[in-house]
């Protein structure tokens, strides 16, 4: 479900319905130079390709570079990952007075507060 140009109450209500029924939810809007986008994908599983790190055998090379791990770009492995997305209601209800939230404040875009 993709929504735009809706009130905050409608966005929260539709997201709750989607989350309950395991339906992916996207919303976004633009206000002049500022905008937002939110995605609630519920439980999302995906596969990420990682480059294997080759281990250097001791005594094979000399010098300061021997301690650094070497990347072997020809060998990769697939890693399965799982992400659990939060609902819009939870994202909008953050208590900014806590210590953990104060640390996250520096990484939070100012546009988040415009949506509030």
TrEMBL record:
GO terms for molecular function: ubiquitin-like modifier activating enzyme activity. It comes from the Eukaryota. InterPro entries: Ubiquitin-activating_enz (IPR035985). Coiled coil: none annotated. This is SAE1 enzyme. The gene is Sae1.
């Amino acid at each position: 479900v993709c929504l735009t140009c809706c009130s905050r109450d409608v966005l929260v209500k539709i997201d709750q319905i989607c989350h309950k029924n395991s339906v992916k939810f996207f919303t976004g809007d633009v206000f002049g130079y500022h905008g937002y986008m939110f995605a609630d994908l519920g439980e999302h599983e995906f596969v990420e390709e990682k480059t294997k790190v080759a281990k250097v055998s001791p005594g094979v090379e000399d010098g300061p570079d021997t301690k650094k791990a070497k990347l072997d770009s020809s060998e990769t492995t697939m890693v399965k990952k799982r992400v659990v997305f939060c609902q819009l209601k939870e994202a909008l209800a953050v208590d900014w007075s806590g210590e953990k939230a104060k640390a996250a404040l520096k990484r939070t875009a100012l546009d988040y507060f415009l949506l509030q």
